[in-house]
Amino acid sequence: MDILAFSQWLRSNSLFISLSCLGISLLVLIYFLMAYNKLNKYRQLLKGSQKKDLETILLNHADTTQLVYNKLNKFEEKFLANQILEAKHLQKIGLVRFKAFQNSGGDQSFALALLDASGDGIVMSSIFGRDEARVYCKPVQHGTSSYPMSDEEKEAIEKALGAH
Hints:
Oligomer: single chain
Structural class: alpha+beta
Number of helices: 4
Order of helices and strands: HHHEEEEH
């Protein structure tokens, strides 16, 4: 094929050649973008590491993961222990104010129930009169007391157990 024929062939196929070059250029660009993305992933993996040996880096990551796992287990154990202790803290409160004597003062007398999650604790009563005040305290287990209770004390316990 001589130069003239080749020149004529180039002119007649110039659109096909241009599109082929454009397609190849796009494929090369896509390949470089994918390679750059992988390079960024490797850089992220190697970030913070002074060593360039991949095996050493992976072993360090495994050690770090094990340390984090151990710490997480310790936190979980402490959390569960705290949940058990939490049930014993006073968290249910019921207060009833009342007038102990018809002819004196306002609602100065009261019954106060202080209970934990299982309904254990105390109920306190304070009766105020004109000349004196008396305070009583009774143990409560599972929402009841082994001592006789007044209606106000029972109501205070019911309020406490109904409260969340």
